[in-house]
């Protein structure tokens, strides 16, 4: 069980180091006057610090290295 969690942390940590965030598009209403509606697409971004991926990667390696062999 611990080894599986460690491997998952390693994969997530490596992915977070490679991709430091992502961008998505959200449709927002600008004018809503009865039957008339005007909307626009707005780009939003989600970013995380690279050190967070490093912490997860190192934590996963430590968990895998210290887990008991079954």
UniProtKB/TrEMBL annotation:
Transmembrane segments: 6-25, 46-65
Keyword field: Membrane, Transmembrane, Transmembrane helix
Lineage top rank: taxon: Bacteria
Protein's UniProt name: DUF3185 family protein
């Amino acid at each position: 069980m611990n080894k599986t969690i460690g491997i998952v942390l390693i994969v997530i940590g490596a992915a977070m180091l490679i991709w430091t965030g992502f961008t998505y598009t959200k449709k927002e209403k600008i004018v809503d006057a009865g039957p008339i509606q005007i909307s626009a697409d707005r780009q939003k971004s989600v970013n995380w610090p690279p050190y967070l991926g490093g912490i997860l990667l190192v934590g996963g390696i430590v968990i895998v290295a210290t887990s008991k062999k079954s």
